[in-house]
Design brief:
By secondary structure, the protein is α/β, with parallel strands linked by helices. It is about 35% helix and about 35% strand. A hairpin with a 5-residue loop joins strand 5 and strand 6.
Amino acid sequence: MKRFGTSSVLALVLLLTGCLYSLSGGGGLPRHVRTVAVIPFENETASPELTGELHQELRKAFGDRLGLRDATEQRANAVVRGKITSYEADVPVSFSADPTRATSARRRLQLRVDVQIIDQTTGKVLYERTGVSAEGEYAEREEAAGRKQAIQRIVNDIIEGAQSQW
């Protein structure tokens, strides 16, 4: 009977310990990382709108998906920096060879960025990747829709990649 009691107590302790385990910050981040500053990416392309659109989506994703609070660079536990290195739009994907048919052309664009996430407490680079790229497809004269697709894919890659590194 005493043996059953010891086993029960041990099982209860293990169960409670497991229930108390949780991740601080978000998705495998170091425990002390609770705030983030996403610095607008340097833009080496001729499309100035990319900087603001990517910045907004990254800030939203770090908050919504990782549970981090937005902060200024001076107060943040982690800083996200990067560079938009390439933006190629208006690449034909499909079109109608028959001028009598009303088939709209499809276009594709490609976006490429370099990104770095730095833990400001330790000075350690938490995640770094060059050449993160994504494509977006859109109907003729609707480049913004394709750009939004590509930006969402870039943001997903950054969030998922960063989570897998930590």
